[in-house]
Amino acid sequence: MDTIRFGVIGLRRGQSLVRACQAVGGAAVTALYDVNAETGEELAQSIGATFYADFDAFLNAAIDAVVVASPVPYHARQSIAALDAGKHVLSEVIACHTLDDARGLVQAARRSQAIYMLAENCCYYDEIELVKRLVDAGRFGEVYYGEGDYVHDFRRLFYTPDGQLTWRGRGELSVYITHGLGPLLYITGDRVSQVSAVAVPGGKFDPQVTLPTMYLLHMTTAAGRTLRARVDYVSPRPHASTTFFSLQGTCGSYESIRGLGDQAKVWLEDEHGPSGGQPPAAWHPLWEQAPRYLADRLAVSPDTYTGGHGMTEYWMLRDFLAAVRGEKPSPIDVYTGLDYTLPGIYAMQSAAQQGAPVTVDDPRAW
Hints:
The chain has 366 residues and is α/β, with parallel strands linked by helices. It has helices spanning 11-24, 37-47, 55-59, 72-84, 99-111, 126-136, 178-188, 269-272, 290-293, 295-298, 312-324, 334-352, and strands at residues 4-9, 27-33, 50-52, 65-68, 88-91, 116-118, 143-151, 192-200, 214-221, 226-232, 243-249, 252-255, 265-268, 284-285, 358-359.
């Protein structure tokens, strides 16, 4: 297979993937689908693609793969339809927002010969990749605790231009956990087996928005690790750092930036000395480790920056194209994608039960 022909669903978010296709090479966007025909026609004309106002006609177009970048409530059903049509799928997060959709997605992936991949771009940050390589090299010892927060004031996305509630404002969204949890599971190769969650009640800023908009999750993994995550859609705060990660091992620790001139930092006992020694152990810049562990990424031209997320779309699309060509497995296949997604669905059940622990299914057993 030479050039992979892409169709993109949802052009508000999908345009960054269009740019990524152009940067990576070996891929071309030839078909577009969106409910906004004016936007679709304009973009199609600018990139030499065909716009489709009918979803079935779009799926029947001469395309090899589909990028699902529509609103969350449509992710699973459109991914299922594309897989059933024999199209490879790169789906935006979250993979689904109900358990029924999750089961349907698993069944569709099993009966299709096409590739499914969840587009969790936070797993592709250079910082996350660097920490993973340090962990894989044994520099952290046994990793037993991690934190992953996604705190993002996007109240403006709760409303249409005329002030009506969007699907977000109406609560058609389970806990949007994958940005905070996905990188922790990617680094450790683990999955969540149990979650306990509490929620801040809705209505803090608008009585129309009645469902909770902030969740705090405590999780136990299959390997016995403890994880914590905050998912917050509305809290007013600077946008400087929407994600925060930390990792604790028996001989290493890591924290990402929190803003105000901060920088990612690491302490590694084998290099920086024991934590209880004299003088006391100190944090060191994480990026001091990059020349040794991240040389391949540092060698890539910054011209490959394609959207608002650094080079994440570039690396993610490279992996997806390699999977489509049969060169490697999908790195975030339907099971891994649901490992990232399902804890958020079960967290809502836990919060409704005042934080009672809830078992998280392994989708491989369905």
